[in-house]
Amino acid sequence: MFDWFKPKMAPEGPVTFDFETEIEAPASEIYALVDFADPRNAKRQMGHSVERGEGAPDTFILIMKQMPDAEFVLSVTDATAPSSYGYRCDPRPQQGRLQWSAERYTIEDRGKGKCLVTLLVEAQFDEPMPQDEYAQHVGMMAAGCDLVLEKLKLHAEQGLDAVLEYERTQFG
Predict the structure, then answer these.
(1) pLDDT category of residue 170 using cuts at 50, 70 and 90
(2) What are the strands of the beta sheet with 84-92, ordered from one edge?
(3) Which of 6, 75, 83, 150 shows its CA 20 to 30 Å from the CA of 19?
């Protein structure tokens, strides 16, 4: 009888998000924008700090301008130029209820300077979590993933200034 008053709990385990978009740019340009080792990496171009992790050649530390007290430890899991790039992200300290995420870009050449870019993200949130709170976090993560691809497309097709202007109009 008292189970009626208990909140419904979210499923356990990571959540998977899958987004894709066609981008009018060669695969090599898109790969450079997502590869943290490349000086043309989008985060670097936007003024965020991307440094190699100590003692781990495939690890990077990302510090975003808007979050100077947070480090995002990025461990590269796949670097197959120009077709796929993946990494695991461990925020330190933990940001909100997100424990970690794993992101993988697949870049499929479509000819004539176009590519299909797929972003597959797995995200692990704190457990247990009430279903209504979980739904909010899943929605925010989905919106964030969609925004990442939108800005990647804008960056590849129109350049850095277009992304910076987009951010100014969206985020003040």
Answers:
(1) confident
(2) 15-23, 114-125, 98-111, 84-92, 71-80, 59-63, 49-52
(3) 75
pLDDT tens for each residue of 29-63: 999 999 999 999 999 999 999 999 988 889 999 99
Spatial separation of the C-alpha atoms in residues 159 and 21, rounded to whole Å: 17
Q: Which helix (H) or strand (E) holds 163?
A: helix 160-171
- DSSP track, 129-143: -BHHHHHHHHHHHHH
Task: Name the pLDDT band for 140 (thresholds 50, 70, 90).
Answer: very high
DSSP string, 76-89: EEEEETTTEEEEEE
Pairwise CA distance, residues 116 & 111, whole Å: 10
State residue 6's pLDDT score: 80
DSSP characters over 111-127: ETTEEEEEEEEEEEE-S
- Which class does domain 14-171 fall in? alpha beta
**Are 34 and 28 contacting, i.e. CB atoms less than 8 angstroms apart?**
no
Integer distance in angstroms from the first to the last C-alpha of the chain?
50
Q: Is the bond preceding residue 128 a cis peptide, omega within 30 degrees?
A: yes
Query: What Rg do the C-alpha atoms of the chain give, in angstroms?
Result: 18
Are 150 and 42 spatial neighbours (Cβ–Cβ below 8 Å)? no
